[in-house]
Amino acid sequence: MSIKKYVSTALATTIVLSVAFGSFASEAVIAPPAPPAPLANPVPAPIPVIQVESEIDRLTREFNAEVALIIIAAQNEIKTIHTSLDALRADIKAAKEAEEVDETALAALLAEEEAIKADLKVKEDALRLFKDKFKLEAEFGVEIAAKILASRDEIAAVRSELDALRAEIKAAKEAEEVDEAALAALLEKEEAIKADLKAKEDALRIYTDKLRLEAEFGAEAAAKILASRDEIAAVRSELDALRAEIKAAKEAEEVDETALAALLEKEEAIKADLKAKEDALRIYTDKLRLEAEFGAEAAAVILASRDEIAAARSELDALRKEVKAAREAEEVDETALAALVEAEKALHADLKAKEDALNEYIKSLREPAEAEDTSDDEETEETTSDN
Fold first, then answer.
1. Fold of domain 141-216
2. One fold for both 141-216 and 295-367?
3. Has domain 218-293 been given CATH number 1.20.120?
4. Nearest-10 crossing angle of helices 219-251, 180-217
5. Is the pTM of this model over 0.70?
6. pLDDT for 156-175, tens place per residue?
7. Taking the C-alpha atoms of 265, 267, 268 and 269 in order, what is their torsion angle to the nearest 10 degrees?
């Protein structure tokens, strides 16, 4: 049954059940116990206001009213199936624990359980796909959403193929007489499918990343970010390969200390290069976001302030190491230590002042926008009340 075909019936049932449940709940309220005697000077307590967003309101906000009703109906059907499955499992448990087990009846119950589980999975998958489709269409549009969903279907098919192949491999390994040539062929095929799966997953991830980056920053900036990510990925791969070399060099029967030292030095250089590239990308994307929110001039002020704060933190960290070393010395120079502690307090106060100033500056930039939003809300309320 398609998700739209059962919507009318399930929706009607949902509404009837909701009304019936509400009526029952209102009639079944338990009378509260008699209140205690009033105090001589009673103090009125404020009544807490609890605002709870209903599921249908949340779904309407996330999708739209029509889609929300379809989802609610599907969720109710799924809940009903879960209830049926729980009841059936209780029957199965009772059948297994009976003094004389009726194997035929038990087999029928187990077969029914499998059928209900399969039906449940179909409906849950259908609901998930239905919601995913609307989310993707809202974010990217109908055409691109269709491409993404088609790509996901391809990936799911490859995963299923891989699972089936792994079952074959397991059976081949557990055979009484292992056909090594056939097993080797299966393992080689597994590697090929794994590579194909990774390629498809990477392609989809890169495609959706590109779309989101273009939506947030524009095509030119998105291209720069993606290129920078590719560089970072390449450096990480280089570092992984080098670390494998270092591990092999350390585990050799005769360790070549000179060669190992050179490898370790190279590792430090690559780590520094990786950090520089990661920091540069982070700073670039931060700059773009700040410019989008506050404008180029304010963004420059914020970034400069962040640099000052980072420098102050580094200075404070270095000073704390000096304080630690001074305290752990064999002969503690109390005068020098006191001077270092005072300097640490001063740097800490300076750092806090810089952080507070930056927070206040950002708050001052956001306040006009928040005030404008409040003003718009008030105007809307006035218009509504006039009507």
1. Four Helix Bundle (Hemerythrin (Met), subunit A) (1.20.120)
2. yes
3. yes
4. 140
5. no
6. 999 999 999 999 999 999 99
7. 90
